[in-house]
Amino acid sequence: MRHRCRTPQLSKPADQRKALLRTLTTELIRRGEIKTTKARAQAVQSTADKMINLAKDGSLHARRQALGYIYDKALVHSLFEQVPSRYSDRDGGYTRIVRTIRRRGDNAEMAVIQLV
Fold this sequence. Notes:
The mean pLDDT is 95. By secondary structure, the protein is of the alpha+beta class. It has four helices and three strands. The chain has helices at 14-31, 38-57, 60-69, 73-86, and strands at residues 33-37, 95-99, 110-115. The chain has a single domain, classed as CATH 3.90.1030.10.
């Protein structure tokens, strides 16, 4: 039973799934938007919002939590500098998912996830 299991499994073992979400979150924060499947975009949306909430908090504990999740130390430093001024008036919903055309090879639903 998968009752009350909110994280989608993405057809991967737990270690590969966690690594995938970390990589997608890191690249989303670095580039501002990424193109991926709809299921992966929905999965990475919550983790990206959590990282932005940590950056809005700005405490040392929040910074260390973000450093434990995001791969790039310089990226975390720039995230903690830019986010409080950029998202100070917003209480949530830092990312947007826009559906695009289906992928040609396997007809998977594709989406673009972007920072608002």
